[in-house]
Task: structure prediction
Amino acid sequence: MKGAAAIEVRDLTVAYRDKPVLWDIDLTVPPGVLMAVVGPNGAGKTTFVKALLGLLPVSAGRIRFFDAPYEASRQQIAYVPQRGSVDWDFPTSVLDVVMMGRYGRLGWIRRPGKREREQAREALARVGMEDFAGRQIRQLSGGQQQRVFLARALVQDARVYLMDEPFQGVDAVTERAIIDLLRALRSEGRTLLVVHHDLQTVEEYFDRVMLLNVRRIASGPVEQAFTTENLRLTYGGRIAFLRSANAADAADPAAP
Amino acid sequence: MEHLFSDYTLRMVALGSAVLGLVSGGLGTYAVLRGQSLLGDAISHAALPGVALAFLLTGSKTPLALMIGAALAGWLATLWILSVTETTRIKYDSMLALTLSVFFGAGLVLLTWIRQRAGASQAGLDTFLFGQASSLVWRDVVAMAIPGGGALALMLLFWKELKLLAFDPEYGRTMGLPMRRVDLLLTALLVVAIVIGLQTVGVVLMSAMIVAPAAAGRQWTDALWKMVLLSAGFGAAGGVTGAVLSSLETGLPTGPLIVLCMGAIVAASLFFAPNRGLLGQRLRRRRNAGRFQRETVLLDLYALGMQHADPLRPHPQGAVQAMRAKDIPVDRLLMRLNKEGLVRRAAGGWGLTDAGLRHAETLQKERR
Result:
């Protein structure tokens, strides 16, 4: 078991009717890394995460977590969906939503109790939301919703975290809090795969990256994979300008 | 009221409709929260051919036989809807409408055939269209209470699974919880809730008993368990009121009367619920608008004072009015502020009081 990849994907193809959304993806994610998945809209980023979680039928390929199939490692994997995926007008409290992260371990019928409430409060404290435990979820702002979803995944105490756009629509302060949390999780030895849309922050936030556009364009350490050429291949010509401007800044010692 | 407890028929009617209201109100909460309100309509209409076939096969009108027939037909229709929408491109709502009318049509054909073949003695089945509470006897109430109570018990037992199903089923799947089976369980419970109400409310209007109590309950609370309780209570209240009204020899059909009572409860909830109610919202908006207007005048007075380096110094009303549009009733606002003890009348016009100055300073900090 030692040295097994946290996530190992071989020849993964996912199709929607007769059109492939993901084509022949190979990816190895070593344990204890913070990895971004980037690509243009419609590149299949969300599909990729959902396929890893067994939420979508896979046309071909093999997915393993720590050298075991997904079914055997479910309790090791936590998922943070896009926050738009649920109805925030649902009649329930913040603490209740966070406790849902324990439902998988609790099993059928058993009710969450004192222990689960405590774990949920701890997780809320980690995302800076301890004062919101009793709030109704419809009163939350976008950034708070996102942090509630993160807390729900934290109580799962997983080895692998799969997150779909956790930075989407949050303000700068929340973004900072979230990235600090992700780094803390990494330093605890956990593995994080994060769908990300802001190319400007990839180099600062992540140590690994996969560039995806139906096919895997590149993957690996950020300094090797996140190149102008690979970005051009992923996004088409549009993005080259942005990158070369950045590179010029970096090369010019006179720039502030 | 005395009449209600002495008369056997009325007692049965009240008891039966209370049971069906509790069950359909409680379980309807989940249907409404999942956006599946119309599924109830499809299930109840689809139950009609089941009732007719059960009668044709067994030759009896015992409630149990008819309910089993209704439940099987409703359940079959639901599975049919779900499997077709999963495997083809037909949309969910189209499939609901289609199944509803096809099953209902089949039911009407069967009913007509039964009536022609068996004669007037079997016309009792027609009451399944619009419901008839006055025909309820103890045997019917028991036949409603046992499956209904069982359905409510299962709902409580699987409370956490059903909550997760309604809020975030995909997340539940990633944790290894068999959400598809939970979905089938909820559908089965919904079928039970509908089937036990068919004799009283009728297939045409039964879905209102699923949707209306929950819609009303949602107005009053933001906690799921309170919503389930309220919805069950509203269901029982509407059911009993409507059923009793129709049994008081008015000759009016039960189903429509129950639905009208439920409609009244929903309308009252839409208007009078404290947070979400229209009246509360309107009042709060007016109150806030008035408060904001007064606060701007208070801040104007404060700003005028600061220009003269003396925040407490009085100013003529004209000077305050000059800072705002002509249609802003500055005189009335100043009068209200005076009553609140924030401004005082002085020789030179209006000035801030000490309390007014403190309030203006806090506002100044907040609104910056």
Summary: Chain B touches chain A through 26 residues (CB under 8 Å). The domain at 280-366 of chain B is CATH 1.10.10.10 (Arc Repressor Mutant, subunit A). Chain B has two domains: 3-276, 280-366. The radius of gyration of chain B is 30 Å.
